[in-house]
Design goal:
Layout lengths: L6 E5 L2 E5 L1 E2 L3 H11 L9 E8 L5 E7 L5 E6 L5 H15 L4 H11 L5 H9 L11 E7 L4 H14 L3 E11 L2 E8 L16 H4 L7 E5 L9 H7 L1 E5 L2 H5 L9 E6 L3 E8 L4 E2 L4 E4 L2 E4 L21 E11 L18 E3 L3 H11 L4
Parallel strand pairs: 6-7, 7-8, 10-12
Antiparallel strand pairs: 1-2, 3-8, 4-5, 5-6, 8-9, 10-18, 11-17, 12-13, 13-17, 14-17, 15-16
Helix pairs in contact: 2-5
Length: 362
């Protein structure tokens, strides 16, 4: 059934209905949404406006939500019911084929000189997920639609779980003040589509270059200190299988980007040996392999129950290319961080920023 929104002014015990107007509303909605996409009911990052598609059409607005799913936002304007729904789905079919690099290119055109990773972090206070555009959501924006459009959208949304919906805006004026009221055709809940099939992940996530790894050097004043790793050439993690398991995956020859949580990136180097328990680890000191535990260290690198391998501190030797003290750590919004001690570093933005700051260009 048709959606109707009403607004009344209360004057004491009397109600006066304010009649909606639609003059110029749909032509302005695109600008309104671009300036404040939260008017659609959730935080969104606009990544493109009037985005050209491969077949000649132009998408009114493209956006990312906090999961990095893409939202196709189409204004009804003067389109017919068949046109507006078909166009939204047609655009969606094109968007679904876009890889992460293409999404980044669209944003580069929309916001020249601004990295998508940085904009995403500023919008959501979270790093851009590895998976971008794994799902899509379609939103038709209108002041009103006819019964045929409602039937089509409900049929797709409720009958086949297609994430398409209509958001209505009505414009009211009262004594010089202007108001917009919003409602959804289908209750806007559970609109997110299921996760993408694994076959698409190679497109929706950044490719790994096969050599770069992220390492979290979690400082602890009583256990682990970056000053030791910087001086003697190592990274470490332990105190539980969770913290050492991924560290042991670091292959000899890998390039590691070392990050101190809540501080930033402090080192880049090359792994020169396999992981060993702290009490068995050897590091190079003036060309001589030296037991790490025999050196004057700031940290203790000991844990309760560390006689067991899974509780021990594990050490990976690294030949540093560039390091800085914690106080000079490099960090920008949007850079990669991970709860694992070690992970494949796919994010070009982080690699490029650290490489620039450390002066590591060939």
């Amino acid at each position: 059934m048709a959606v109707e929104m009403g607004l009344w002014r209360a004057d004491g015990g009397r109600l006066s209905r304010i009649v909606p107007t639609s003059i110029g509303l749909e032509s302005q909605l695109e600008t309104y949404i671009e300036s404040d996409p939260s008017m659609l009911g959730e935080t969104l990052l606009i990544i493109g406006r009037q985005v050209p598609t491969a077949f000649g059409g132009f998408i009114d607005l493209l956006a990312l939500d906090e999961t990095a799913a893409v939202h196709v936002i189409e204004l009804k304007r003067d389109k017919t019911p068949r046109d507006v729904t078909a166009q939204a789905l047609d655009y969606g079919s094109w968007v679904a084929g876009l890889g992460r690099a293409q999404i980044q290119s669209i944003f580069e055109v929309y916001k020249p000189g601004v990295a998508l990773e940085q904009a995403f972090a500023e919008c959501f206070n979270e790093a851009l997920p590895e998976e971008v555009n794994s799902t899509q959501t379609f939103t038709i924006v209108a002041a009103s639609v006819d019964a045929a459009t409602e039937r089509i959208v409900r049929f797709l949304n409720e009958g086949f779980a297609v994430p398409i919906n209509v958001v209505f805006f009505r414009h009211f004026e009262d004594n010089g003040a202007k108001y917009l009221a919003r409602t959804w055709l289908v209750e806007n809940e559970g609109q997110q589509a299921p996760g993408a099939a694994p076959a698409r992940q190679t497109k929706t996530r950044e490719a790994w270059n096969g050599s770069d790894w992220y390492v979290a050097f979690g400082e602890d004043s009583g256990t682990r200190q970056w000053a030791d790793g910087q001086k003697y050439g190592f990274v470490s993690g332990g105190g539980g299988a969770w913290f050492s398991r991924t560290l042991k995956n670091l292959p000899t020859g890998a390039r590691v980007f070392v990050h101190i949580p809540k501080a930033g990136y402090v080192g880049v180097g090359t792994v020169i040996g396999e992981a060993r328990r702290f009490d068995e680890a050897l590091v190079d000191v003036d060309g001589v392999e030296t037991p790490l535990q025999s050196l004057p260290l700031v940290g203790s690198y000991r844990h309760e129950g560390d006689a067991e391998d899974e509780n021990a501190e594990w050490v990976v030797p690294v030949a540093w290319t560039k390091t800085v003290p914690r106080e000079q750590a490099v960090w920008k919004n949007g850079m990669f961080a991970n709860q694992n001690t070690a992970a494949k570093l796919r994010q070009k933005f982080t690699i490029e920023q650290v490489t620039d700051e450390f002066g590591l260009h060939d």
